[in-house]
């Protein structure tokens, strides 16, 4: 173990040692953050990053009361993305989701959401006393992943429920997008704001002809994007955009202060400014788009791997730079393929039962894409055709027995998960990534949900929200 020597003392540094060991592996990254080990940053930024780590001084402006440089940087971002106003966030898209819901809704209100939402939405419902109304999601044929909700589903739900906001995820982790233009029109006809978790779509503005339309340009009232997922920005960097006459702008502004640290990272803020400027050029993203389309075509031609493309997405718009490879034709799981890639020095972003997901950004090189292609084909060559497989479908939407905040505040007890059917959950259990709830706080646990969690775990998924295969339920 490396020991950091300072002032004559030898000190244990386990986290530093861990990161040094990882760095020395020299893995190729098809995971976030989008800067890929710093390659996406200009040299002066890397050279002086510690000098940029300052506080609010006369010369350095203030993120929470911007007057000069930071205010101008956010104005430039708003102009580029088509927003009326943009906020730089240093607590990630999670903070953005919380800010949007807190600004658009009042305690005790309902919010219409897709079931495949991120668990941070459930946390927001707990924090702000909101009740989620879930729209069930079907599966994308051939891939077994949640398909975006259809406009007709939103229309039907708004006709049945009095909600204060609609919050949808688009794109999802797999790069598949909802029809936000039609959904925005439906929501606005009901005088309800449309909020979008667009965490995986910060790069869409690079080239309108190549990527799906951004949420704001499609008519959303607010959208949050994780700059760190696909752009050259550190983890936790995010943009929050607003263009709306249905949301109190000053209320939103107040929550961006309340729900973030009072000591924001200036290197993070500077990186978001740089990321927007780089994205405006767009050339690198055009080249990446073409390279990803070609890579998918070659893999499909040379193997039984099925890449996710717009042609097989059931009419949904797709981000072609999101590399999703389906291995259901083989006797394997996405988790196994993920591990095999890691063994070959390639870090994918996530996996599920049938798919492995890689995040390519403008910081990836053509050589890295070629190495990924060779690795995937090599793995496929050694796999037998599909035989007995893990068969597991997400359970139907569970009964919301208590509002999330009430369930969270209620006395609880831990039970073995296999004994929890019929009980009300105090926690949110999900495979992470992507963090989509299987059992959400306040829902009545079912045998189907338990079986699905065990199937995911058996196949290799990491399950959050449990404690040694026990779940906390209302006492």
UniProtKB/TrEMBL annotation:
Q: Which UniProt keywords apply?
A: Aminotransferase, Decarboxylase, Lyase, Pyridoxal phosphate, Transferase
List where the protein spans the membrane.
none
Q: Which domain of life is it from?
A: Bacteria
Q: Pinpoint the Orn/Lys/Arg decarboxylases family 1 pyridoxal-P attachment site domain residues.
A: 13-282
Q: Which cofactor does it need?
A: pyridoxal 5'-phosphate
**Which Gene3D superfamilies does the record match to this protein?**
Molybdopterin biosynthesis moea protein, domain 2, Type I PLP-dependent aspartate aminotransferase-like (Major domain)
Orn/Lys/Arg decarboxylase C-terminal domain ranges (all copies): 413-469
Q: Which InterPro entries match?
A: Orn/Lys/Arg_deCO2ase_major_dom, Orn_Lys_Arg_decarboxylase-I, Prn/Lys/Arg_de-COase_C, Prn/Lys/Arg_de-COase_C_sf, PyrdxlP-dep_Trfase, PyrdxlP-dep_Trfase_major
Q: What family name appears in the similarity comment?
A: Belongs to the Orn/Lys/Arg decarboxylase class-I family.
Q: What is this protein called?
A: Aminotransferase class I/II-fold pyridoxal phosphate-dependent enzyme
């Amino acid at each position: 173990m490396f020991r950091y020597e300072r002032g004559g003392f030898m000190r244990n540094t386990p986290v530093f040692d861990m990161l040094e060991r990882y760095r020395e592996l020299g893995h190729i990254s098809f995971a976030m953050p989008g800067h890929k080990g710093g390659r996406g940053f200009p040299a002066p930024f890397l050279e002086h990053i510690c000098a940029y780590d300052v506080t609010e001084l006369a010369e350095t402006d203030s993120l929470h009361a911007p007057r000069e440089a930071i205010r101008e940087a956010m104005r430039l971002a708003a102009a580029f993305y088509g927003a009326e106003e943009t906020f730089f966030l240093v607590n990630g898209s999670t903070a953005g989701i919380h800010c949007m819901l807190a600004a658009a809704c009042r305690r005790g209100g309902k919010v219409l959401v897709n079931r495949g939402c991120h668990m941070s939405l459930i946390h927001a419902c707990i924090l702000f006393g909101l009740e989620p109304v879930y729209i069930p999601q079907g599966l994308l044929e051939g891939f077994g992943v949640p398909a975006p909700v259809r406009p007709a589903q939103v229309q039907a739900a708004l006709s049945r429920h009095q909600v204060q906001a609609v919050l949808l995820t688009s794109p999802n982790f797999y790069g598949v997008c909802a029809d936000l233009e039609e959904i925005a029109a439906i929501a606005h006809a009901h005088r309800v704001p449309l909020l979008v978790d667009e965490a995986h779509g910060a790069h869409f503005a690079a080239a309108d002809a190549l990527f799906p339309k951004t949420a704001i340009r499609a008519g959303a009232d607010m959208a949050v994007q994780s700059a760190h997922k696909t752009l050259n920005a550190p983890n936790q960097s995010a943009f929050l955009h607003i263009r709306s006459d249905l949301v109190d702008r000053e209320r939103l502004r107040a929550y961006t202060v309340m729900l973030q640290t009072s000591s924001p990272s200036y290197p993070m803020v500077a990186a978001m400014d740089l990321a927007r400027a780089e994205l405006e050029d767009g050339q690198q993203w055009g080249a990446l788009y073409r390279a990803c389309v070609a890579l998918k075509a070659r893999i499909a031609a040379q193997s039984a791997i099925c890449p996710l493309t717009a042609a097989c997405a059931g009419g949904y718009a797709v981000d072609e730079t999101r590399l999703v490879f389906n291995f259901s034709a083989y006797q394997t799981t996405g988790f196994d393929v993920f591990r095999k890639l890691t063994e070959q020095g390639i870090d994918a972003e996530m996996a599920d039962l049938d798919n492995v997901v890689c995040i390519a950004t403008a910081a990836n090189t053509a050589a890295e894409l070629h190495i990924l292609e060779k690795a995937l084909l090599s793995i496929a060559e050694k796999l037998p055709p599909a035989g007995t497989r893990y068969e597991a479908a997400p359970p139907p939407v569970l009964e919301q027995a208590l509002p999330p905040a009430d369930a969270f505040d209620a006395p609880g007890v831990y039970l073995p998960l296999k004994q929890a059917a019929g009980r009300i959950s105090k926690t949110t259990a999900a495979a992470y990534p992507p963090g989509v709830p299987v059992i959400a706080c306040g829902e009545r646990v079912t045998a189907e949900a338990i079986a699905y969690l065990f199937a995911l775990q058996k196949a290799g998924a990491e399950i959050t929200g449990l404690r040694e295969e026990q779940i906390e339920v209302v006492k």
